[in-house]
């Protein structure tokens, strides 16, 4: 794991536990990546982003680790 992975994992955990309130205080890039991790298309829509736009805005480095973070969060349940 690297710093970028740990950062996105922490932000995703925060939003998973704290819901939309914890998610809204994150930066735009973090919010989009976290919404993708948590499979929250409704959150993306509320901020007027499509899934494709969220992927593009998140960047290749985060998009590459999103599936792994989503699996880790699922395993933690």
What does this structure look like?
The chain is mainly α. The protein has one domain. The protein has helices at 3-24, 28-37, 41-46, 51-58, 60-76. α1 (3-24) crosses α5 (60-76) and α2 (28-37) crosses α5 (60-76). The longest helix has 22 residues, at 3-24.
Structure summarized in a few sentences:
Helix content is 82%, strand content 0%.
Overall tally of structural domains: 1
Strand content: under 5%
Using only C-alpha atoms, the radius of gyration works out to 11 Å
Overall, the morphology is: globular
Number of helices: 5
Low-confidence stretches: none
Write the layout of secondary structure elements.
Layout: H1 3-24, H2 28-37, H3 41-46, H4 51-58, H5 60-76
Which descriptors apply to this entry?
77 residues; mainly alpha
């Amino acid at each position: 794991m690297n710093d970028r992975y740990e950062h996105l994992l922490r932000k995703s955990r925060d939003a998973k536990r704290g819901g939309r309130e914890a998610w809204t205080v994150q930066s735009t890039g973090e919010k989009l990546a976290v919404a993708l991790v948590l499979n929250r298309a409704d959150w993306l829509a509320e901020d007027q982003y499509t899934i494709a736009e969220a992927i593009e805005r998140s960047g290749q480095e985060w998009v590459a680790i999103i599936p792994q973070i989503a699996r880790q969060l699922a395993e933690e349940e």
